[in-house]
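*** Protein under study ***
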Amino acid sequence: MVHLLVQIIRTSYKKFHLYILKELSYILLLSLAILTFILVMSRLGKLTDLVINKGVELMDIVLLIIYSSPPYLTFTLPMAFLLSTIVTLGRLSTENEILALKASGVNLRCLFVPIASVGILISAVALFNTNFLLPTSANLFRDTLLNVLKKGITVDDKEGIFNDTVPGVVIYIDKVDTQSKKLTGVLVSDDRDKDQKQTISASDGFIYLDPQTLDLSFILNNGSLHRWEKKDDSYKTVSFKNYTFMINLANMLPPSAGVRKRPFEMDRNELRNAMKRANKDRQYDLQVEIYKKITIPLSALAFVLLTVPLGIRRNVEGRFSGIIYSLALFVFYYMLMALTENVGKTLRIPPLLIAAIPNITIVLLGLYLVRNLNVEEPTKSSQMIRFFWTRYFEKAK
């Protein structure tokens, strides 16, 4: 009889855990997609301009959007987990399902089993993203963007037309040898400088794009340069045998896409190599960045202890209070991270401790709330928060 009762309890717990996982997964995937899309939208303006005005293929733009997603996943993965957990448990609390569990004598600590399972999965995915996917996608993003720029200024299929892809510059090429890439009959009009305008003509030349600096070079032969300087109202003409005309294409990049990798886009080996060439302050920042590639993904596990007690006690604030709780906690986490980095850099606190302080703080807050998880009445601090929160909404109404 006892054995049968144990089996029934285990089966009930399994069904309950699967029920929680099912409810949680829907909101998790939805919130992850929405949050990531909102952040990626910041890049869409410049990329859309490339499609409409520069004639870039839509597939290239799709690839650029995909490759630009991993940096945002660093933030949206733990945030989506935090949001989905609080909203899911808040719904159970609002519909008295948590109260029914308490009345049935169920220990609410069983909620940690499905929630922690999802937290471990999110942390594993986030670790893979920050340490492997993000550095790789950063390289692919720049390669694809470089190919997009090359397509915009390519001269192979632009014989006999005026190419104004580069802002302020108009390029005309009479003939292009597709085998040797030799240009014949080159004319360049440069209006980038408001104080002067110049026109360059050459009988032949070549074009070269430096993938590191994004400098586009026209190596021209046997031509002339005509320049009008507005300040002096003077006109100059120079004949040349060899002349190199350069344009930097960095201003055609999206605002958030630099020519070189930023620290958070580097893998750990690249960060260590960068440390060898950096000064002391820069070395400290890079070392903190190495540890953050571990601590930020693990923030999902830290949030497990905090989200369960907050979620199950959210039954009077309203349907959308879970979103507000999640945003407030997430802002608090990243403000704490920024604050500790500045203090650590000033006081020279060990980088590992600085990177871990936000997670440690969240864990300690969670442990404080978990102590009274099965108590019907909230803790004193929770009572105060709830009182002011409810009173605020009553006045707002």
Remarks:
- Residues 2-150+259-396 form one domain.
- The first helix runs from residue 2 to 54.
- Strands lie at 162-163, 169-176, 183-190, 196-209, 215-229, 234-248.
